[in-house]
Write a structure and sequence with these properties.
With 251 residues, the chain is of the alpha/beta class. The protein is 27% helix and 24% strand.
Length: 251
């Protein structure tokens, strides 16, 4: 079910205006979705080229990120969403980009994120274990895209501790936005390392066990033709079938 709307955003010359749409399935959100965030004009061309498949304006609208919010982005990669989250929360908001100690220990591992923080003053780089988040303040949204399956992998992985840590870091009523490559139904946890996908039913069960409730989910990034039994890399960059979950910490 896809519902399309056109938003017009009047912003400074540093921002672009773009149409937005989002798809949503039951259950309905507890509050109206936010208007889509602007995209900063200084984005790399490689990021812009991905927009057709990643639909960032619609995704940010669905996640409910609004001006003035505090957002923690886990495993931000090269900052594809970091720039746009910075614009979405505006000068009165904050984006805490959370890098793991292993990333920070790599030569140049934080260079891209530090460069963003140097030019976008509402971005703060935080080095922290995801299983024990150390943020300067409680946040409205914790955000992660195409990473949830990876949080299950590795010798020290502890998804229960990670979800509990996110739950603790959120304000009451806060949202954990989780987007990931869909595994075949019933694939189980083997899919996280074997094909780098996530069994959606398992993700929902894990998040519910941490105390989250499902606030909304979306069909926006679904791709019925995707071979969900194959590796996500076989499908091509960001053309996999992806699920989107807005998980809420009760008030």
């Amino acid at each position: 079910m896809i519902r399309r709307s056109l938003f017009s955003l009047v912003l400074t010359s540093a921002l672009l205006v773009a149409p937005a749409a989002f798809a949503q399935t039951q259950p309905a959100p507890s509050s109206p979705p936010a208007a889509p965030a602007p995209i900063t004009a200084s984005r790399p061309q490689a990021d812009i080229d991905r927009d057709v498949n990643r639909k960032p304006l619609e995704v940010i609208a669905f996640a409910g990120v609004k001006s003035g919010m505090k957002v923690a982005e886990l495993a931000p990669g090269g900052g594809y969403y970091t720039r746009m989250l910075s614009a979405a929360v505006g000068p009165n908001g904050k984006v805490y980009v959370v890098a793991s100690p292993r990333q920070a220990a790599r030569p140049g591992g934080l260079d891209t994120l530090n460069a963003l923080a140097a030019v976008l003053p509402n971005i703060v780089v935080v080095t922290s274990e995801y299983t024990a988040l150390a943020l300067p303040e409680p946040v409205d949204v914790v955000w992660t895209t195409e990473n949830y399956h990876d949080f299950h992998n590795g010798p020290t992985a502890n998804i229960a501790a990670l979800n509990a840590s996110v739950f603790k870091a959120l304000k009451p009523g806060g949202i954990f936005y989780v987007e990931d490559h869909s595994a075949a139904d019933g694939a189980g946890l083997e899919a996280t390392s074997k094909v780098h996908r996530m069994d959606e039913a398992v993700a929902k069960a894990e998040l519910a066990a941490a105390g989250f409730t499902l606030d909304a989910e979306s069909d926006l990034l679904r791709n019925p033709s995707d071979n969900k039994a194959g590796s996500n890399s076989e499908a091509g960059h960001f053309v996999t079938d992806r699920f989107m979950l807005r998980m809420k910490k009760p008030k």
